[in-house]
Amino acid sequence: MLWDQFILRKEEEFQRRIKNLGLLLLLALSVVAVRLAYLQVVQGNRLSVLSARNRVRLVPIKAQRGLIYDRNGELLVGNIPSFNVSLVPAALPEDPAVRHQEFLLLQDLLGLRVEEIKEKLNRRGLRYFEPLRLKGNLDRIQAARIEEHGLKLPGVMVLTESQRQYKFDSLAFHVLGYVGEISEHELALREGYQAGDIVGQSGIEKVYDHYLKGRNGWLHIEVDALGRQMGILGREDPWIGQNLVLTLDRSLQTRVEEILGTRRGAVVVENLQNGEILALVSSPGFDANRFARGIRREEWEKLRTNPHHPLTNRATQGLYPPGSLFKLVTLLSALQEDIITPGQTFTCKGIFWISTWPYRCWLDSGHGQVNALRSIVESCDIYYYQVGLKIKVEKLGRWAQAFGFGHPSGIDLPNELSGLVPSPQWKERTQNMPWFPGNTVMLSIGQGYLLATPLQMLGMACAVANHGVIYRPHLLKRVVTGSGTLIHEVKPEVMYRINAAPEYWQLLQQAMTDVVRSRRGTGHQAALRGIRVAGKTATAQNPHGEDHAAFLAYAPADKPEIAMIVYLENAGGGGREAAPIARQVLEAYFGVPSREMVETK
Amino acid sequence: MASHPGKWWKRSKIHVRPRLAQGIDYSILLPALLLCLVGVAMIYSATHASPAMSTLYLRQLLWLALGLVGFFFCASINYQVILDRYAYPLYWLMIILLAVLLAAGEEIAGSRRWLALGPFSFQPSEFAKITTVLVLVKYLTSHEEHLQSWDVLLGTFFLAGLPMALILKEPDLGTALIFMAVLFMLLYASGVSPRRLAGIVVFGLLFSPVLWLLLKDYQRQRLLVFLNPRADTLGAGYNVIQSKIAIGSGRILGKGWLEGTQGQLRFVPEHHTDFIFSVLAEEWGFLGSLALLLLFVVLLLQALRVARLARDLSGSLLAVGLTTIVATQVVINLSVATGILPATGMTLPLVSYGGSSLLATLCILGLLMNIWSSRIMK
């Protein structure tokens, strides 16, 4: 009886426990069911999108970049095929140790550090199934060695790509610019670009990237999980980039670079009738092909920290005092504002006192009685000190701005600087000091706080030659498609129109002509056989050592075609150093025999 | 014994009895068969696009035929005799097999689970589960009166721990876990107090840091990836993410049979074995998935009913153990596929591709039906 009850209790307990097991099972499967409802009903749409994306892979067909020609149709920038080594991350071995072995082998074969490879693989936005470009510009031997070790390098492949080629190496480096792979940062900012795209990083390549880049095509590929191609679902052909014709004259550009040699500075030659830039040189330069091949980090660091700043375009980004070139502006403003008359003279004794401060002329012996014409021809400083004291600084500032100082010239190059036209308010604000008469005196001869780019200074020559009209300087002439259809043509555009009486313009023209023609003119070294040149020298003092030498010119003086500026850093006297350079450039442009050669005959 | 010279089974010690007609339990056989056919359909869908694998479904059908033979064989024998006379020999035989496997087995994907047997390779661990249940039931029923003693408990841990350790060494973490589940369910069903079982679990957890050290690198990685699948989209986390995408993209009605892209294009790895469920969920949607769950619920609840109504304690415990084997696999496999649990590499019983698994599961179901039909003979 007792035993039976014990058995019965045990039996009941057993039944209860089996029921519990059943409940446990139902609970576990309910969790699964709820999870399924979440994935398939709640998250269904989102995961469906992911699923579709999983299946179709868009593989870009890179568009070939547009070509760049000079004004005469000479090819400046083209493309050549090159090999690169790429890696499909999805095909890498799963085992980290094996993966590391593969990286080590790549390091041996390519000279690419393991950390560099890992860094590339860790970038955000990496597509696991698309080839990631590891290194470009492989030579044939490297490419062959990669292929040879193919079995030990799963996921690694050698691909051909189009590489930018600068036909004349470092020629016009600052105009053409260079290209490089788009950075993560740019990718986030700009629309219509994909990772791995080659984009312009500076110069024309950057400004007109939208013309040059074309549009990538796409292959719609159906793939499996390992990225293996299962079939092609569709294809959108790429549009090759459009070609650019520049205003640059390749042979003149080459000649100017030869003439400039290793000097530091900038030379710009412009058609003053329409603003077309014929030559634009900033020295030192750099070979853009080294960027196209993929520049090494050490090389890039060296370039960036180079004390001579080869990456800076001195013509548009170098800020210098215009020095005596600015006397043209001071004189015109004083005449037009009726502060002086052309015949009015000022006395130069070589030194001029403002209360107890001595201000010297560059000619210690003094120029004696100086009128407007002589003040330019012989570049008398003391004439301008006295004119400067009569003129109001605000007025002079407005005239400077009317010539384009303090504003970008509007040239089609990136990151142009505006320079600085100082004013009393500006000085108060930034230096917390009042404007002194001495400041106006310095401003009137283009020294002191006034800073401008050589391209802005060039505007003065254009204005004088054109009776006040300055065209927007530009490098692009037209855009054409590969088949030659014209897309866009750049029209001359008046940037500034300076109002002054014609006789004053004529006075300035006369003065600039005499600077070169007259025996006493500071710029007579720029004189050319057969063609009359108008010019102005400057020897600009600066806090960074030796004076800058500058020469501003237009020619022919009687029928102006071109304007030019030569600005040499720390070279010394403008008449002695810059004027001969200008002469050589003008000789090259007009095709007249060199004066040196003639004289030796 | 020689009284029925014409009937060979009457003479054999196993006592094969032709009593199927009276005792076929359709609530086990029908869901099981349906699940097998669903499995074949899914395997076909998952592999038909790949030339190398497109005939796997035929092999599965062959294994199904073999499995049905195993099913009816196991349904016909006298399980009591098996328990009494063969539990220990079968158990030790399996231990030896597992040891041999570790020493000489064929290595597939970094683990030794397979034993080549002529044209077929088979997985001893699938059958080790059954023999371990047999030996545990035998042990528990023979120590029925002393279940509360620590000696007896230690004995069961030894019996379950030995094959478990060998399988863990293969390494096959998932299958090893099943041994633990089976042991605990059997102890619970046979009346060990839940408090004591909970104490053992707590004790085990205290030692889990030691276990962590014993885990292989890839096993640790799987656990870590489970906690944060996005950390390694191509490695271990990849399976789970792709499986979830496949399941979710099926939505309510599914993409239709053979229309799934995730499974067929192999975004889901091991899509015909461990992740077969994601192929089904993608193609047949939420409704299809629920139907599959329902089939398993019917099957497993019926199996537990067998345990409740068995003729004797050994039959009951046997049913509990065998049910636990199947139920644990179902729950773990589905949880892994839906991202509830970390990836362990476990097949979905009856549905996944795999001969050993199918054969073993059908044998288990055969034994369950055996116990069911024997209840009448009380």
Describe the structure concisely for a colleague:
The complex is a heterodimer of chains A (601) and B (378). Helices cover 39% and strands 22% of the residues of chain A. In chain B, a hairpin with a 2-residue loop joins β2 and β3.
- Number of contiguous helices of chain B: 15
Secondary structure class of chain A reads alpha+beta
Q: Helical element count of chain A? A: 23
Rounded to an integer, what's the Rg of chain A over CA atoms? 35 Å
Low-confidence stretches of chain B: 1-12, 228-236
Overall mean pLDDT of chain A stands at 87
CATH class of the largest domain in chain A: Alpha Beta
CATH architecture of the largest domain in chain A: 3-Layer(aba) Sandwich
Cα gyration radius of chain B (Å): 21 Å
Structural classification of chain B: mainly alpha
Chain pair with largest interface: A-B, 44 and 50 residues
Query: Could you describe the largest sheet of chain A, including whether it forms a barrel?
Result: 7 strands, mixed
Number of strands of chain A: 23
* Percentage of β-strand residues of chain A: 15-25%
Supply the number of structural domains of chain B. Answer: 1
Helix and strand succession of chain B?
HHHHHEEEHHHHHHHHHH
Kindly list the characteristics that best describe this protein.
heterodimer; A: 601 residues; alpha+beta; Penicillin-binding protein 2a (Domain 2); Beta-lactamase; 2 domains; 23 helices; 23 strands; B: 378 residues; mainly alpha; 3-stranded antiparallel β-sheet; 15 helices; 3% strand
What does this structure look like?
- The complex is a heterodimer of chains A (601) and B (378).
- Chain A has 601 residues and is an alpha+beta fold.
- Chain A is built from 23 helices and 23 strands.
- The relative contact order of chain A is 0.10.
- The model of chain A has no long low-confidence stretch (mean pLDDT 87).
- Chain B has 378 residues and is mainly alpha-helical.
- Chain B has helices at 8-11, 20-23, 26-47, 56-76, 79-104, 124-142, 150-168, 173-189, 194-206, 208-214, 217-227, 236-249, 276-309, 313-337, 355-374, and strands spanning 106-108, 111-117, 120-122.
- In chain B, strands 1-2-3 form a 3-stranded antiparallel beta sheet.
- In chain B, a hairpin with a 2-residue loop joins strand 1 and strand 2.
- Chain B starts with 7 loop residues before the first helix and ends with a helix.
- Mean pLDDT of chain B is 81; it is low at 1-12 and 228-236.
- Classes of the chains: A alpha+beta (601), B mainly alpha (378).
- Chains A and B meet through helix 1 and helix 2 of A and helix 8, helix 12, helix 13 and helix 14 of B.
